[in-house]
Amino acid sequence: MKSSIIWLGTLLLVLIMALAACGGDSGGDSAPASDAGSAETSASADTNLPTGDVAAGEAKFNEVCIACHGPGGEGVEGLGKPFTTSDFVTSQSDAELLAFVKVGRPVGDPANTTGIDMPPKGGNPALTDQQLMDIIAYIRTLHE
After folding, report:
1. What predicted TM-score, i.e. pTM, was given to this entire model?
2. Helix 129-140 with 54-64: angle, nearest 10 deg
């Protein structure tokens, strides 16, 4: 009985966070800044990926990803892994991370160690490839 209540509470919390992450996009699709002073990271040279803008990625991360991955990507126990120490993030190309974030990581995936689904696009299906690349650019700045 107690484990059923805990499971139901966890499920409810995840659903609430997913709904919060699906909130409206206040800015639309913005192209990355092109002036020399902007903080950008380039995508893999052998792909047609857009360039990620770190500042735009931080803003979008704080709207969508922070609920599970915490402020500054420090992780949230039992929800989202930290990006500050993630070997997974550093071992993936931008294209691989983009593909991963687009599909997420279901609870049944053997690599899922949290026991919680990572929903596709962090639970916000409206995110564009450009916005995801912005988030990836920001996440790459977090590794310690």
Report:
1. 0.68
2. 100
- Residues 131 and 30: their CA atoms lie apart, in Å, by 8
Residue entry with tokens 């995840």: 14
- Read off the pLDDT of residues 7-29 as tens digits, 9 standing for 90 and up: 444 444 444 444 344 333 333 33
Beta bridge partners of residue 105, listed in sequence order: 118
Q: Are 89 and 140 in contact (CB under 8 A)?
A: yes
Give the count of beta carbons closer than 10 Å to the beta carbon of residue 120: 16
CATH topology of domain 2-26+39-140: Cytochrome Bc1 Complex; Chain D, domain 2 (1.10.760)
Residue with tokens 């969508």: 64
Alpha-carbon distances of 109 from 4, 56, 96, 112, rounded to whole Å: 22, 30, 17, 5
| CA quadruple 135, 136, 141, 142: dihedral, nearest 10 | 80
